[in-house]
Each structure stands twice: as structure tokens, then as C-alpha cells.
Amino acid sequence: MVDYISLLKQNNLKATIQRTNILKSINRTGHITIDEIYEELKIDYPTLSLATIYKNILLMVQHGVIVEIPISGEKSKYEIKKDEHIHLICKSCGNIEDRELSSCNIDIEDFNIIFKQINLYGLCRNCQSK
Fold first, then answer.
1. Predicted pLDDT at 84
2. 96-100 and 85-90 strand pairing
3. What class has domain 85-128?
4. Considering the entire predicted model, what is its pTM?
5. Residues 6+ apart with CB under 8 A from 68
6. Class of the 4-80 domain?
7. End-to-end CA distance of the chain
């Protein structure tokens, strides 16, 4: 289980109800859009605005709590930051599967790589069998 309060504090953010609930929503699904987070949270917090979700997501991305996964032709999804890994993204159903980033050492002269994110697009096993 993720300790959302500690995670936020370790990244120099105040642990608010909005942020902890956003993190719970992300953790529950693994990869989720801002609109999906909003739809889930407005059930229990009807006064929570979409703008508040956006503001907190952007702040948590800036502080390294969560990571944006840009998806070609679609809205970005978000996940709680963890060890570097590859995303296998199904172009049919939109499912995202994490895979370990084993031996992907990239050495580019005169360029200091800070963060690697590799997104591979294709068809998941379920969609291939349809």
C-alpha cells in the first residue's frame, strides 16, 4: 500500500485531501486520464472542480510525484512515479501495460539524460485475438 501523505511530503508538497484522493484514484487504476479522475472523484466530492484536478496533477508532475504518459492522438494518462519502465500501449483498447526497462542504456555524447520514458504502441493480446 502506498503512503500518499509521505509520498507528497517527500516531494515537498502539502498533503491535501484533493491530492491524496487523486493519488488513490491513480493508484487504483494504474494509468488514468484527468477526466477519468474527475469522474471518479466528483461522486464523493461534488464540489471538486475539474480545474482543481488539473492544477494538482500539473503540480504533482512538476514535483515528481506522478508521471504523464503522452499517448499519440489521445489524452495523456498519469501514473504514480516508480522505477523506469516501458509502456506497452494498445492502439485498439487503450490499455497500458508496464514492462521492466532492463538493458536500455542510452549514451548520447554531450547530453545528460535525466529521465527515460519509452512508449511502444501496438495491439494487446486481447485485441489481437478479436
1. 80
2. antiparallel
3. alpha beta
4. 0.82
5. 61, 76, 77, 78
6. mainly alpha
7. 35
